[in-house]
Design brief:
single chain; about 325 residues; alpha+beta; D-amino Acid Aminotransferase, Chain A, domain 1; OB fold (Dihydrolipoamide Acetyltransferase, E2P); six-stranded mixed beta sheet; 20 strands
């Protein structure tokens, strides 16, 4: 085999709109952007499977049912690129289930039975002794469909949908948001697989919402980003999001209205990682300055909402001085 250890997956750069077909060399190919764990699946000549994250760490122990399905459905000496996902009972992608697996330890076998996951393959890097990475996407896609085109719809390993029709892609962009599909990934039909390079494009569906400023990184006089909250049904302020770095004008505007948090501010001095974006335990606790929860702002966010919180950083849009914190939707209601 040409690939015996995990490779750095090819990546996508963010763009603001869905490109027209002629914008890509050879034409654009559009795929749904699944909300899951990126994983390279290596099946060696003997049929043994290695699932590896984009950081090239093992997923085998966390997702044993996916390993078993890959071993059953994918021929030996094959390497796939794809996404581990969990569809909840209502058909919506459940990223929280993947997080639970990541930290479950001894509970992983029980969760594998209670919350089984799937592997959605969108590329093939090697099979049958051929290194496919230098070949154009259209050829790799034909090989992938040959490998997985006949698997039953309920199989735990499936090929991701792909279309060359931009109208169909835009329909996916709008219609699949309710299932937790974040947007689209757009690829060059003539493009080779370039490890670690951001040569694909991604378009995320975004909408605006409101939050209450409960803290800032940096200082209150020079805020760098905002920690946003919403009140739950019991009147407790709950963290829902963290913004990307604020533009200079917004820092000046917000510094003039933010007041120090009172002694009974409900949030701790440091926020655990995962409370305002990212995986739990994936980075050190967030150091920030608490502010009085009285200022409402509007932000732009993608569709990745889990347990009432936006998982990815949101973008500050504007201050909403005309709104009272009681006007903001409650915790658990994204919009």
């Amino acid at each position: 085999m040409h690939i015996r250890s995990p490779v750095k997956p090819m990546l996508a750069a963010t763009v603001d709109r869905v490109p027209e077909p002629q914008a890509c060399p050879g034409g654009c190919r559009y795929e749904p952007k699944f909300d899951g764990f990126r994983a390279i699946a290596i099946v060696d000549e003997a049929g043994a499977v290695l699932l590896a994250s984009r950081r090239r760490t093992r997923f085998n122990e966390a997702f044993p049912e996916v390993v078993a399905a890959v071993a059953e459905l994918v021929p030996p000496a094959t390497v796939l690129d794809g996404e581990i996902v969990r569809w909840g009972p209502g058909g919506r992608l459940d990223f929280g289930a993947l997080q639970r697996r990541h930290v479950a330890g001894r509970r992983r076998p029980d969760l594998a039975r209670a919350e089984p996951c799937h592997y959605v393959a969108f590329d093939v890097l090697e099979t049958g002794g051929a290194d496919l990475r230098p070949r154009p996407l259209r050829e790799r896609r034909a090989v992938l469909e040959g490998l997985l085109g006949d698997v039953p719809p309920a199989a735990r390993v499936v090929a991701a949908p792909q279309t060359a029709d931009v109208a169909e892609a835009r329909l996916w962009f709008e219609a699949l948001a309710e299932q937790g599909i974040e947007g689209l990934v757009v690829k060059d039909a003539d493009g080779a697989y370039l490890e670690g390079r951001r040569r694909w494009q991604k378009v995320k569906r975004r909408t605006t919402a409101e939050g209450i400023v409960g803290g800032v990184t940096g200082t209150r006089q020079a805020p760098e980003s905002l920690i946003l909250g919403r009140f739950d049904a019991d009147g407790r302020l709950r963290v829902v999001a963290r913004t990307t770095p604020l533009p200079p004008a917004a820092r000046t505007e917000l510094a003039a209205v933010l007041n120090p948090g009172s002694p009974d501010h409900p949030w701790p001095a440091e926020l655990p990682s995962g409370f305002a974006g990212g995986l739990y335990g994936s980075h050190p606790p967030i150091r920030y300055v608490r502010t009085e929860p009285e200022t409402v702002v509007e932000f732009s966010a993608d569709a990745a909402v889990e347990n009432g919180r936006w998982r990815h950083a949101v973008r500050y849009v504007r201050m909403r001085a005309e709104l009272d914190p009681s006007d903001v939707p409650p915790f658990g209601n994204p919009y």
